[in-house]
Amino acid sequence: MQKKVRISIVTYNSEKVFWVLDQLIEEFKNDSICAFSIYDNHSNEGFIKKLKNYESFADITYGNENKGFGYGHNANLLKVQEDYFLIFNPDILLKKSDLEKMLDELEKNQDAAMLSPKIIFADGSTQHLVRSRFTIFDLIVRRFPLKIVRNVFANRIADYENVNLPDDQISHIQIGSGCFMLIKSSVFKKLSGFDERFFMYLEDYDLCLRINQISKIVYMPQVSVVHFWERGSGKNFKLAWIHFQSVFRFFNKWGWKWF
User: Which of the listed residues 8, 47, 190, 214 has the most CB atoms within 10 Å of its CB?
Assistant: First the structure.
């Protein structure tokens, strides 16, 4: 019997992935719907040794260099045949029952090609990762170091982060987070997956904009996943530089929208 969903995970010395994989094994141990693929972006030897213990659970590819987030997911997904693809961060916790509800919604919603659930912290609070747009002004104001400036533009930031999306109904959205993207495989393949020119950051925004050109994305707050969000680009200079490069590449591709 062909699997219905291919869950794709890309790793690079990912701190929480083994805990996440153990949870997935427990949650999906009697499942006949999901298949799992892992692409490792050339992690260290100790990490690879531990990852090999999961070869009976997932199809694992070991890259000989780090080619980025989008490259790894494309390698996992573009040649497989499941009906749905799930882009899945190595720091996400998912319940099988919630995935089944998401699949039911996408199957009955012929207008939508992608679904984003509510994404929460471990304490249950919401991570506002849905975006209504992406402009230079929003990027600067949201990260501005002086709180007084952020307070002045609090309403605009709230609109940018879609903080007022209803919790009791499904909404159409422009941009969902790449930490968890449930996508109809036919659309992912039609778009040739992620744009691999983005090494990391904003490849999810880019994919969402391309999906919205031919279909729709829905936000389903009735289900949730836990995301152990590290906010790496705010703590690490190398990641911040990669983020900057992705911002430059994004606006070069989509146009420099300042406000």
Answer: 8
